[in-house]
């Protein structure tokens, strides 16, 4: 309550932070002249980012303006230096973190809660809105002069970002695209182990093979029948030479996935990218665990790893008349096709 005899004095309003985008030619001294102009207007520069664009650069400056400074006066001062002020919008404390750190912090939040991906992308792009839509409705060709961007998630959906205050520049879109790819892979746990959800409750884990698994993989081969080994190697191998084990677990340019029950390896899959852009795969499942979904789970996991690398077509050696692998591929959701010139090669295609 105001005391008698005292005059009310209004407290000064603390100026807000502004995010200012300035398009300029990349000539020596241009930024210095802009900084002098801002100092003349009593603006305090808090951060600066430089975004390369065709024909020059786009400088993004977060500043604290002088109290009462109209935005049009700031824009006029920038134009007086031969530069274009493309946007002046309100900013907050998040703008004081450099873009790389801000993106990493945002990624951490989305890893902890994948449902926040749209929110995180909105923050990273400083977008007005980010909407999750079916891929059929995304229309990535519609850019609205750079004010709209589409990021496909690989599961039949896409995120559509819109920003009216300034068009997106390529550096921002590249950074955001890399973030979406990373978070999509993290959400699908591409590199980590996966526990199979089985009705019998058996704890079977799919994980990457490492050299330390050599003995367990050797025991896997010892427990397999000659028919199972022949289907995998197309030769009458009974035991695997020690020198093969490392290549099975760490194939050149590729990776292996093991199905593990307790301490035993009961299945082995390989994914080896080829020069043509596809990948070769192979599967081996112990006899006692066949027809229990282990091969299907291994192949589905290999398909996930392939998709994360941009691979959409797999191939495997499959003897004529052998329908085990085609049926396994069908259960894993892959379309199959026999090779025209080589009937022993089975081609498998990931869903579009």
UniProtKB/TrEMBL annotation:
Its EC number is 2.3.1.-. It holds the Pfam family Acetyltransf_1. Residues 204-352 form the N-acetyltransferase domain. One of its GO terms (molecular function) is acyltransferase activity. Transmembrane segments: none annotated. It is an enzyme of class 2 (transferase). Keywords: Acyltransferase, Transferase. It comes from the Bacteria. Residues 19-99 form the ACT domain. This is GNAT family N-acetyltransferase. It comes from Amycolatopsis melonis.
